[in-house]
Design goal:
9 helices, eight-stranded parallel beta barrel, 278 residues, alpha/beta, binds zinc ion, two-stranded antiparallel ribbon, single chain, binds fe (iii) ion
Length: 278
Amino acid sequence: MLTIGCHLSSAKGYEAMAKDAASINANTFQFFTRNPRGGKAKPIDPDDVAAFEVAAQQQGITRFLAHAPYTLNPAGAEERVREFAAMTFADDLARMEATPGQMYNFHPGSHVKQGVDVGIELIASALNQVLKPEQTTTVLLETMAGKGTEIGGRFEELAAIMDRVELKDHLGVCLDTCHIWDGGYDIAQNLEGVLEEFDQIIGLDRLKAIHLNDSKNPLGAHKDRHAAIGEGCIGFEALASVVTHPALRHLPFFLETPHDTLDGYAKEIADLRAVAGE
Ligand code: FE
Ligand code: FE
Ligand code: ZN
């Protein structure tokens, strides 16, 4: 059975997310750990976590993905910006231990004209600062579209960051199909080649999650604008091939497609489950 879900609002807590997931036939979900633009996180309610565990078990939810605020920049030019990113990561990771063994995804950052190499060093140093041997959460670096001075648009950049991190066992990668398409990786015409390249440079064993999105822009556009599945330049067939690929189908898939209501996700989940023979 596919592990598939979508990005959900965390405003009402964990139990509410498990129920939202159930309502759209999802068995995983993603959410922001706090306001995506930063700011203080709500304290975690142990009663909500306990209720979540019951609801999650009923729905067959064993995995979820927390997403860091996308405004954080551990590769920032100012120390204040880097410190804020590291402090927020550390706080999020401490909170994640309320739900042990899950995953936490972040955007590597932007080098803001300091150069890719400096950016890579800064991101690795932030990870070395916040990762703890005893943590149970796996931290995922997200593949990016390579917009502006964004780091992570090339597999080599993610590999270089991971190489410099001491506690590698706590690290993985989240592959965003819209982002890598916009970054120039042709998953529509050459999925095998892209996966081979990923395997050689990063290692498929490091791939822990997929953000499943279509793209509003053509291959290599470096734009990062998500489209609904089948309504963008990647297309339904190519994205269905990602979901059913033997090297990928065991992974959790997260839709980050633009929909105003959960119905849009329910339809995408049903369509993708259908091509997977469910
Ligand atoms: Fe993201
Ligand atoms: Fe994403
Ligand atoms: Zn994106």
